[in-house]
Write a structure and sequence with these properties.
single chain, alpha+beta, Glutamine Phosphoribosylpyrophosphate, subunit 1, domain 1, Rossmann fold, six-stranded antiparallel sheet, 18% strand, globular
């Protein structure tokens, strides 16, 4: 598993400024080094730049990227992030066609498959992946993403070139590509977040390559192609046949994803999903006289504070103990404390490049960091609920009636802290409604569906496109931030294809949630685990955590430089801080309520490391600047300044600045740059900027 980045344009020769563009590739590598701490490499050609950081889990000796391969006098290249689970079958086919291989991993197989079949080779691939291929024959760059969007890939068009990266921060490492938020981006954060619209990079002009699509970039422009989509059709298998086929698909997916040249482990919560993954892994490893390592997650002293509820009916620990004994695994109980969970809120934003799922992300970030000390590959039970219908909104009447996202049916909970002016400016309700209606309209329909089945299919579609994608984003960023590859066997496209058309009465026979999955797992788990009621990812019930967040939000309110104050209503927030536990229903998903709302706002309250301003006062000699630590204001109409270097945001190639009312350009550093109309330049998370007034 790795991080990729690069750029392409057809009418410019990068080699004319080779040192400059190689440095850019290195910068794009550096900001994603966490995704691939083991190795890094790049390649620069006349029209292509490719960069790669590697987490070595397969082909440990010869798998360094970019991988190049010649046919005639043409050199193809690839940077690849992911795992291919049918490598053996595909490689055998290519060997028969006369191709030879110099490596043993899957990356060269993917590149060779493209060289043999073209972009349609991706249809033969079973795996999780995002990759870019340099095609010198057609003089094009082709970007690919897996069917369900397990692996991320973002891109932007900048000065007639295409720039791509596994993470958004990689794009911002390219000079001149800067983070900007418009009204759409703010709606994504406040109205939709922590989810985001698929295909949207939230920041202005940043795009996300859609799952199951590839993007061809050439002199003619950009062309996107969908290579896989769900189809609604009648389910013709009997219940017994459905159970049998489901059991095969689930077990086959897990077995394929154990493949690794380094030891694998599993996340074990004691729920049916993670337990099934762990059971199959354990059985396969035992065939090789190996013991499975498992990890469970909880919060310090949570047993003292836990109270059962409809969403979380039981604690995980007793069921984890049952599974550990049953499997004979080498188990590790990991616990996160309140301070660590709160401290990592900012880091979770850095990991995802966007506001995250509050302490759900920060705690998982901590747990992944602990797992990565001993393992590079972990299998998880993610996505089973979305595919098998495990969430309450699959069957609740109010969710069927509500013409909105079932995990966020009431936007009032999101507005409780926001200023009225900001709410009016965003038109939050209209944005959410339009987004919802567009997504629902894309649902693959079946004429034979009853109105109830049709609505349930809509909810299933929303789960696949939205809720599941949010969880996959969370899993990728939190794991890869620590150099850990998380695999999700339930996100095998064959499982999704088959289960999409299985009727609800089969999925929930006898009124039991995920009954079909449980039936398919018979013989693999103890009954008390197999039939355990769903319990989601754990959260802390310690009120001290809530108090900690209240204190940190109050610090933000008292700091006039905090950027989030542009959006918050201080009076509303103070009232909320008096009793956040009385917040009521979750505002996102099942568990994100009062404390998580505080954490979500705390994430946006990133405090500047330093504030630099240029204070120009009457009488200061033109061209001279004064730097003060703290916010300052301009006090003269204009001055002359020369910017040295290649230029950047707001500058011309001649090294002179444009005439601008407000002008911001980066001096040094990487991170999230925010433009301001206030005259105050703030340095957010190691960003150094200077803002000028009326620069000429």
């Amino acid at each position: 598993m790795c991080g990729i980045a690069g750029f392409y344009q057809s009418h410019f020769d990068y080699l004319t400024e080779e040192d400059h563009y190689r440095q850019i590739l290195e910068d794009m590598e550096k900001v994603q080094k966490h995704r691939g701490p083991d190795e890094q490499g790049n390649y620069l050609d006349s029209h292509f730049g490719l960069a790669h950081v590697r987490l070595s889990v397969r082909d440990l000796v010869s798998g360094r990227q970019p991988i190049l391969k010649k046919t005639g006098d043409k050199t193809f290249g690839i940077v690849y992030n992911g795992e291919l689970y049918n490598t053996t079958e595909l490689k055998e086919d290519l060997l028969k066609k006369g191709w030879e291989f110099s490596t043993t991993g899957d990356t060269e197989v993917v590149l060779t498959g493209y060289m043999e079949y073209g972009p349609d080779f991706v249809k033969q691939m079973n795996g999780i992946f995002a990759f870019g291929i340099m095609d010198p024959v057609k003089d094009c760059l082709v970007l690919f993403r897996d069917r369900l969007g397990v692996k991320p890939l973002f891109y932007t068009c900048f000065h007639d070139q295409v720039i791509f990266s596994s993470e958004i921060k990689g794009l911002f490492a390219y000079p001149g590509v800067t983070p900007k938020l418009d009204k759409k981006g703010l709606n994504e954060i406040f109205s939709i977040g922590p989810a985001k619209t698929y295909g949207c990079g939230v920041f202005k002009d940043i795009e996300e390559l859609l799952p199951a699509h590839y993007l061809v970039c050439n002199a003619a422009g950009l062309h996107t192609e969908c290579y896989w989509k769900l189809e609604s059709k009648p389910h013709t298998d009997s219940y017994e046949q459905t159970v049998e086929k489901t059991a095969f698909l689930v077990r086959d997916a897990i077995r394929r994803q154990i493949i690794s040249d380094v030891p694998v482990c599993t996340f074990l919560s004691g729920g049916v999903d993670s337990s099934l993954v762990s059971a199959v892994c354990s059985a396969e490893l035992k065939k090789k006289n190996k013991q499975l390592t498992t990890f469970s997650f909880d919060f310090k002293d949570n047993h003292k504070y836990f109270t059962a509820n409809a969403f979380q009916p039981s604690m995980d620990r007793p069921f984890v103990d049952i599974m550990v004994k049953y499997l004979g695994s080498d188990h590790h109980y990991l616990e996160c404390d309140n301070v660590t969970q709160a401290d990592l809120l900012y880091t979770s934003v850095e990991a995802r490049d966007l506001p995250a799922m509050a302490d759900v992300d920060s705690s998982l970030l901590y747990f992944c960091s602990q797992v990565s000390r001993t393992h590079k590959v972990a299998l998880t039970g993610e996505c089973a609920d979305e595919i098998f219908g495990g969430y309450p909104w699959f069957h609740k009447k109010e969710c069927f009636k509500a013409k909105t996202f079932p995990w966020t049916m009431d936007l009032s909970a999101r507005k409780v802290l926001l200023s009225d002016d900001f709410i009016r400016e965003l038109h939050m309700d209209e944005y959410v409604q339009a987004t919802y209606e567009k997504s629902v309209a894309e649902t693959p329909r079946l004429a034979e569906d009853t109105p109830e089945e049709a609505r349930r299919r809509e909810i299933a579609w929303l789960n696949l496109r939205w809720f599941m994608q949010t969880l996959l984003d969370r899993m990728d960023r939190t794991s890869m931030h620590s150099g850990l590859e998380a695999r999700v066997p339930f996100a095998d496209h064959r499982i999704v294809e088959y289960l999409w058309n299985v009727p609800w009465y089969m999925k929930t026979r006898d009124g039991v949630a995920k009954h079909l999955l449980r039936e398919s797992g018979k013989g693999l788990l103890p009954d008390e685990v197999l039939w355990r009621r769903k319990s989601p990812y754990p959260k802390t019930y310690d009120r001290a955590y809530e108090a900690l967040l209240v204190g940190r939000v109050r610090e933000i309110l008292e700091d006039n430089t905090s950027p989030v104050l542009q959006f918050l209503d201080k009076a509303k927030t103070e009232k909320f801080l008096e009793s956040p536990s009385d917040y009521g229903k979750p505002w996102y998903g099942q568990l994100m309520a009062g404390p998580q709302m505080l954490a979500y706002m705390d994430e946006k309250g990133l405090k500047p490391d330093t504030v630099w301003g240029i204070h120009l006062y009457a009488g200061l000699e033109s061209g001279k600047m004064g730097l003060l630590d703290g916010g300052t204001m301009a006090s003269v109409f204009g001055f002359n300044v020369t910017i040295h270097g290649k230029g950047g945001h707001g500058s011309r190639l001649d090294g002179k600045a444009h005439i601008m009312q407000h002008f911001v350009f980066p001096i040094i550093g990487k991170g999230n740059m925010v433009e301001s109309d206030t005259g105050i330049c703030q340095i957010y998370r190691r960003i150094f900027m200077i803002q000028f007034f009326r620069v000429q």
